[in-house]
TrEMBL record:
The gene is pgi. It comes from Fructilactobacillus lindneri DSM 20690 = JCM 11027. GO terms for cellular component: cytosol. It comes from the Bacteria. This is Glucose-6-phosphate isomerase. NCBIfam families: PRK14097.1. Belongs to the GPI family.
Amino acid sequence: SHIKFDDSKVKKFVHDNEVPEMQAMVDAANTELREGTGAGADFRGWINLPTDYNKAEFARIKKAAEKIRKDSDVLVVIGIGGSYLGAKMAIDFLNGSYYNSKPKENRRGVQVVFAGNSLSASYLNELEEFLGDRDFSVNVISKSGTTTEPSIAFRIFKDKLIKKYGKDANQRIYATTDAKRGALRKEADANGYESFIIPDDVGGRYSVLTPVGLLPIAATGADLDQLMQGAADAAKDYVSSDLEKNDAYRYAALRNILYRKGYVTELVENYEPNLRMFSEWWKQLMGESEGKDQKGIYPSSANFTTDLHSLGQYIQEGLRNLFETVVKVQNPPYNVEIPMDKENLDGLNYLKGQSMNEVNDKAYEGVVLAHNDGGVPVMTVEIPDESEYSLGYLIYFFEVAVAISGYLNGINPFNQPGVEAYKKNMFALLGKPGFEELGKKLNKELHE
Ligand code: PA5
């Protein structure tokens, strides 16, 4: 396996026989997943996606990215939830925290900014200021084609494009949406936007390796073939149901064992700031998949060593219902040597000649032991580097793990009925046609 999975620091909390005892349940979950006998079977398109994707469309994505790199300085990516987090986390992971601030010659592609992931007018205003009068294109992404946040942002940026480019505006709009359904599909067809398809059988949080993630990622010049190859190899490596051979399944089984013991919150953690958004992507994947039927592990995150100076106190000594999953990079792309200082007024000369990465590794080791002593089970998922290949592999690891984990916990890991409730209320309060009755009821409740 390309990932090193370390569960030695859960041993204190999980008896030797507990993992093998889960094997029969994991076998059953595996059958549900692979044979489509489980709930949500229509949304398993992500399983074979890394090899069974639409090759012609894939080539078209690369071409579109090339065109964007030629005629634009900035790509505005409009989307929310599953239509936002995958692209954002991949771009940050592959390009680092300061990608957009780098001079053009130090970037492989265009700057990429995101809109439509909140309802903040101030944010949009800042984004418009950032754009200034530079050339830009828009990639609007929505599976349903009707989500309020991206729809509003798209209206605003479409207007800006038309004012700037007139009838050529349509050549700067790329729509990623359903093949047939939804308002965005209708609009894309009517206006002749170049469009890409979100497969019916892939839900939002599993869609990073569809055009949803691929076009924005390609616009930064990343290698899509390597990204898909990493995921394809993970798909092959994580196919066995045997907990001794399949670390993604083992991770799922251990989560389930811990959950039943009362460890109901999982923190995903990193030691590299370019993985912050990875945690946000992971939280959606885990939370939307598992948090239903009044149960599920609550997915949370912490960024280290930053949060060792804040949440670290809670993790060490607070309520003992936490476990941690560290996503660790064995060889980060850069290293810095700590210099010698003759005066040594800061007392740091004991570190002279050591590298930052070594110090970071010692922090990790120290933290794992301290948290373990404090009663926190810790698992580590280690990737060798920050390549496209490793990212593809890592994405698949967690996708297949949460599917098994969900079935182990007796829920449908592929639906998200709970994200609808607020939408109905918001529509009713905004006076959207069709929601009049609910609007009356809610307004009464609000003003009681
Ligand atoms: O996972 C999900 O289903 C959600 O987070 C959606 O991705 C999000 O609501 C955006 O939906 P859409 O792509 O239809 O605009």
